[in-house]
TrEMBL record:
It holds the Pfam family TPMT. The gene is Tpmt. Transmembrane segments: none annotated. The lineage of its organism: Eukaryota, Metazoa, Chordata, Craniata, Vertebrata. It catalyses: S-adenosyl-L-methionine + a thiopurine = S-adenosyl-L-homocysteine + a thiopurine S-methylether. This is thiopurine S-methyltransferase. S-adenosyl-L-methionine binds at residues 16-27, 56, 77, 121-122, 139. It is found in: Cytoplasm. PROSITE patterns: SAM_MT_TPMT (PS51585). Keywords: Cytoplasm, Methyltransferase, S-adenosyl-L-methionine, Transferase. The keyword Transferase applies. It comes from the Eukaryota.
Length: 196
């Protein structure tokens, strides 16, 4: 296949948590992603006060940047450490509450109310819990999802999108036989078949 030996690769939740614990987070960008700055107009499309979703958000600095512009940010991340580091690194006060619909999940929300980060598996989230979104910044989620889970991921993302939602997606291009991932190689043809 086009994705070579990656097709059956599975990275467990425990492995992701270990990456955060060990500080093995080369995927985190301290300064924000240049592609978001470059294509911000496409994401916003002249609109203000958007609800913007960050799947597998980690401690992405862009969440604060967009919140400071007046948007509401919702993220989901399995690592509570990542979410707490986000609030600490931006000196943002927050409160924590359980998410009754998801066993063991928490929502960490800035006291200003414009940043809500869910600590749980993305697959436990739904539009009935998190609502729908005007924009999605998928900088490292689709490429981190196990290849066998991509269809499940894309189907969930589609249910979270408002009708006029803008979805910015960053992928990486390389020979998948030379690197086992993540980030995984997602060919353009597969993106088209996943999202239509």
């Amino acid at each position: 296949t086009e994705i070579g030996s990656q097709k059956d690769r599975v990275v467990t939740e425990e492995e992701w948590l270990r990456k955060w614990q060990m500080g093995n987070i080369g995927f985190h960008k301290e300064r924000g992603h240049p592609l978001l700055q470059k294509y911000l107009d496409i994401l916003l499309n002249g609109r203000s006060g958007l609800r913007i979703f960050f799947p597998l958000c980690g401690k992405a600095v862009e969440m604060k940047w967009l919140a400071d512009m007046g948007h509401s940010i919702v993220g989901v991340e399995v690592s509570e450490q990542a979410l707490k580091e986000f609030f600490a690194e931006h000196s943002l006060p927050y409160c924590e509450e359980p998410v009754p619909e998801i066993s063991g999940a928490k929502k960490l929300q800035s006291t200003s109310g414009n940043i809500s980060l869910y600590c749980c598996s993305i697959y436990d989230l739904s539009s009935s819990i998190a609502g729908k979104f005007d924009g999605v910044w998928d900088r490292g989620a689709l490429v981190a999802v196990n290849p066998c889970d991509r269809q499940r991921y894309a189907s969930l993302m589609i249910t979270l999108m408002q009708k006029n939602c803008s979805y910015l997606l960053v992928t990486v291009s390389y020979d998948p036989n030379k690197h086992k991932g993540p980030p995984f190689y997602v060919p353009e043809s597969e993106i088209k078949s996943l999202f239509g």
